[in-house]
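User: structure tokens for this one?
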Amino acid sequence: MSNETTITLFHAPNTRSSGTLILLEELGAPYELRVLNMQAGEQRQPAFLAVNPMGKVPAILHGDVLVTEQVAVFLYLADLFPVAGLTPVPGDKRRGAYLRWMAFYAGCFEPAVVDRAMKRDPAPVIMSPYGDFDRVIATLTEQLRAGPFILGADFSVADVLWGSALGWTTMFGLVPKTPEIVAYIERTTKRPAFVWVREQDAALAAQQKTQPA
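Assistant:
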């Protein structure tokens, strides 16, 4: 399948799918949006549940290939557009670190942040998928300290994921604003794609507020 085939992104403003929209812009990928109104519950309607039974965005459709789950979507798109220069391809010595930090986001960071947000006690360390919250943040901070980006000197797909996520989680007080995290957010989210998506999401969210429930 050609990577020139238009990608359909199922998107809701100011959600995890915003990161995918940023990624599509960064990659220069051809895409179209199918916008969902989460406030109206469209993500729980049969039409979208047929796309993702979890009722979550992002999801993408590329020809007849359907991909759900945020990190899977990122990995799929990243490998589809290696010419953008944002993806360590197989054989690149950075590939292992790239995959590690993509998996760390899904397997450690998000569960830790959700437990903290819900004020839930984590599972015992021996059973927890992420150990404990402080260890997750310390591990991430150490990586950012070596920066300026997740993989070192070069901005990559991993920074789209982490930059957008840390922007939101620090905004809501779920992740501490350490100097390393704050500086990293500033470096990543000032990029044109991040700025443009924030503006587009604000317009979409405002439009949805005017729609009848």
